[in-house]
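Proteins fold reproducibly. Take a tokenised chain:

. . .
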Amino acid sequence: MAAKGRSSQPPLRAAFLPALVLLVAALSAAQTRPAGAKPSRAAVTPTTATPKAYSPALLQSGNLLFQQDCAFCHGRDATGGETGPNLTTSRLASEDVNGEKIGAVVRNGRPEKGMPRFDVTARQIAALSAFIHTQQIKEATNKGGRKGVEVADLQTGNVEEGKRYFNGAGGCATCHSPAGDLAGVATRYKGLELEELMLFPKDAKWKVTVTLASGQTISGTLEYVDEFTVGLFDSQGIYQSWKTSAVTYKVDPGVNAHADLFSRYTDADVHNLMAYLQTLR
């Protein structure tokens, strides 16, 4: 039985994962370049990198639209924000020519990723596309350090060592299977997205059971937990939360298994495991 107000395992710390991901990415990037070498930008050069003559009026209109509807998620310069990806390295945006791909996403949205649909005209799509492509070219030709982490930066480990860690010391094979839940994972996720999934699958549907002071139990999908609060979506899809000092709770052991690895990983473990996962296509 967990102590009152605590799970039987250490609680998650939401701020830890982003810092760990960025640290690992920085270490990986350092290993792929000679000391003092400037990072290459060739990998992020968009297919639209050949300069195109956009009128100042169209670019200004696109900039205004982007700042109004897109910058909150994707950043003012389209290089990524709080919740949206970097559009200057987006494959979809790079493959777009006249707004046909960008327009489809803007008009239909991506509800599964939290992006709403927008009711826009063809002229507005043309303006947004012009702004995004211009930002892509600017970032691709900008001299100096890049803001993001490229897939190549995370391909520094040893595949065989990673496979041994997966099946042995890491304990990954007790819950996951390369031929089962992880089949094709490297096709669905790339770069930092794959590494974040490896370190802590935040989108997984972890189960949690909360026991109230009255003895009543409520189960659902874990949405949030820290030292002070535990929250879940119940079977009706309703969000409920409690102070951890007032309840006891038990989380799916899978979530704690990932969290426990944070203190055990060495740099080599992370690089090697990442190298192995990138072969699962």
